[in-house]
Amino acid sequence: MKKEDGVLVLTDKNFDEELKNHEFLLVEFYAPWCGHCKKLAPEYSAAAEILAKNDPPFSLAKVDATEEKKLAERFGVQGFPTLYFFKNGEKTDYTGGRTSDTLVSWILKKSGPPSAQVTCAALKEKVEANKFVIAYFGAESDSLYTDAHVAYANSEDKIAFVHSDDAACATEHGGSAPGIVFFRKFETTTNAYTGAADKESLVAFVKPLMVPTVFEFTEDEIEAVFGQQQPTTILFRSNDADKDAAFMTTFSDAAKAHKGKMLFAFSDVSGGIQERLAEFMGVTKDQLPTLRAILPADMKKFESPNKPADLTVENIGSFLDDVLSGNIKPHLKSEAVPESNDGPVRYIVGS
């Protein structure tokens, strides 16, 4: 079977045969000229390498849709890349991320139980191999396992879920039995959960921890802000002119002081996803720098009354409180209100 960078190369001639040979198979339909496909390629290959060493091993495959047009038509491929996951030949949409760790965690989740039983040594390997891991320590009969850990595992594809009855292992990782620990690869890498034994409480604890305290808005954070609909304050500034500005330090200090209220992000207004974010928020280059906030669940956007040079930890906190409590009106992209509006035709603007 032909492979390129560890990925199976499928054609119209071998496609159905390979589906029969693999109980689980993720297939990428791509076009050689597609920029997003080129960006995905190294991540896809890296994921294939990791999954080939799994027990049991799994394979990734790809189809050049410009060459295998019949296959692309058969599966209704209309854009690139399109990824489908096949389980015993049955197709489902791939809903995971586009990095090697998210590809791996998604496939392992879909091809096995919601939570994998591990030894303490295997837990260390899982933490090393995955960006996010949630580990439960204790008896599987405990409500913390059934109502929080497994319930969350059944609905979350971007985190690897494992469990162990090794109380000593829990202690080694700053937890207890029964207990849950969330592992990540930045800042506080080990985070013990002390909340209630239900899914909603565990989700509320984990979601803000899936991004750094302060982060630059990139493709990787779209899910945390808009997919998970977490309230976020965004400091728009120039990467060139404002990188070392004093207000960036103030913003970082505020993120630590008001952690838990909102996510804290910064962004430029040009280039790729940051340009699209600026357009969505109604921020232009001549308005930089400016502090904004968004409530993604309602798609409401807000503008801080304070200029970045006047920002303090306290007034940033007040801005967040006003946004969350509804004490500040959403910011609307609007023409100026007409000075005179008494004619037979009234002019209505955004504000």
Key phrases:
5-stranded mixed beta sheet, single chain, globular, Glutaredoxin, 21% strand, 6-stranded mixed beta sheet, alpha/beta, 351 residues
Secondary structure elements and their pairing?
Elements: E1 3-4, E2 7-9, H1 15-21, E3 24-30, H2 35-52, E4 59-64, H3 69-74, E5 82-87, E6 90-93, H4 100-110, E7 116-117, H5 120-129, E8 132-137, H6 143-153, E9 160-164, H7 167-172, E10 179-184, E11 190-193, H8 199-206, E12 214-216, H9 222-227, E13 232-236, H10 246-257, E14 263-267, H11 272-281, E15 290-295, E16 300-303, H12 313-325
CATH architecture of the largest domain: 3-Layer(aba) Sandwich
How is the largest sheet built, in terms of strand order? Answer: 1-2-4-3-5-6
- Bin the strand percentage: 15-25%
N-to-C SSE string, H for helix and E for strand = EEHEHEHEEHEHEHEHEEHEHEHEHEEH
Q: Whole-Å distance between the termini?
A: 63 Å
CATH superfamily annotation of the largest domain: Glutaredoxin
Helix content: 25-40%
What shape does the CA trace take?
A: globular
Number of helices, where a helix is a run of at least 4 consecutive DSSP H or I residues: 12
**Uncertain spans, ≥5 residues at pLDDT below 50?**
none
Count of individual domains: 3
Q: Tell me the structural class.
A: alpha/beta
Number of strands: 16
Largest sheet: 6 strands, mixed
Just give the CATH class of the largest domain: Alpha Beta
